[in-house]
């Protein structure tokens, strides 16, 4: 496979053709004989060969003896790369056109004001950003539903077909936009597939195609109900301008009021019936007032719903906070904190308690190091008791009163009241 170079007709007129086949690394001389082609698919009469055309050649290698060089005797020749794709594209166009898929009679009209717009494109490409920006600028009140698909590669055609079938089955949109940014023929080939063209033709929802740039024309553009030059152009075609729409509504309102004021006929004092035109005007005004009241009620209902949702969210948040406070995990965390605090206090108390014996042990160790005999607390108490007894025995006796018992009285006699006790001093 390579590109043709140095194209020259043979000396035998149109019977032979000589050229060079070149790629990025090498080149080889080629010869295409009419007798080899025989009018088949590989003959040069069906496949035009030009300088720079990328072709796919199959043949056998031989030696050109006058020059002592190798050459390729071409037996089959067909376009390669973009040339092959363009050939397939033209064949498919002819077949679908013969079936009537490109006829304007079968195409649907777009709604003047769609309730919802569907966009079949890649969610990460530049096309979706352009489409959303245009829709928001022209008519922001219309919601948009995105059907995410791949727009390039082998899987792209299956994703596009599935998205179109899903949109038709769900019937959520009034119009569909099939969009993709610009690219080469290979990049846009998913929109030239036959299955994609037939899915667009079978879709009951109007389809607007905005694939590539203005110079890029795909089969999807030809089959779609309306073709836009770019994705942004497709967005402009599916929705009207909101400012123009509001101006038209205001003009209609002014015309209606003016018509009613001109046809107004006051009622007679005797209660004569009103004219039909005036009665119709009253009905129109009543309908307008009812519509305004309905819109006001709708706004009040939306406000009440928002307030109710905010109150419910606050209640849920409060209940969640209470549940978290009562959860076992919170209780365990508080208990763990208390246990850790108690451990710290216990360790501090143990260190303080062990500090006194450690100090005493250090003092005794110091005495023992200076030659003093260490004594235990019991021995020291015994020595202290002995010294105390010695001091008491060495001191003089003090005056101490002695209480003696009194003799018993004979029976029948009592002691006088004043003589109840007596003391004898020893």
Structure description:
There is one protein chain. This protein has 426 residues and is of the alpha/beta class. Helix content is 48%, strand content 16%. The strands form 2 sheets. The chain has a 5-stranded mixed barrel with strand order 1-2-3-5-4. Strand 1 (2-9) and strand 2 (16-22) form a beta hairpin. The longest helix has 51 residues, at 276-326. 17% of the residues are buried. The model is unreliable at 38-45, 398-405 and 418-426 (pLDDT under 50).
Topology:
Elements: E1 2-9, E2 16-22, E3 27-33, H1 34-37, E4 54-64, E5 69-79, H2 82-99, E6 117-121, H3 126-138, E7 144-148, H4 156-170, E8 175-180, H5 194-202, E9 207-211, H6 219-223, E10 226-227, H7 231-238, H8 242-262, H9 276-326, H10 328-369, H11 377-394
Parallel strand pairs: 3-5, 6-7, 6-8, 8-9, 9-10
Antiparallel strand pairs: 1-2, 1-4, 2-3, 4-5
Instruction: Please mark out the parts with pLDDT under 50 across 5 or more consecutive residues, or reply none.
Output: 38-45, 398-405, 418-426
Tally of helical segments: 11
Strand order of the largest sheet: 1-2-3-5-4
Describe the main β-sheet briefly.
5 strands, mixed, barrel
Distance from N terminus to C terminus (CA atoms, Å) equals 151 Å
* Mean pLDDT across residues: 78
CA-based shape: flat
Q: Work out the number of β strands.
A: 10
Give the ordered list of helices and strands: EEEHEEHEHEHEHEHEHHHHH
Which secondary-structure class do the elements indicate? alpha/beta
Strand content: 15-25%
Helix content: 40-55%
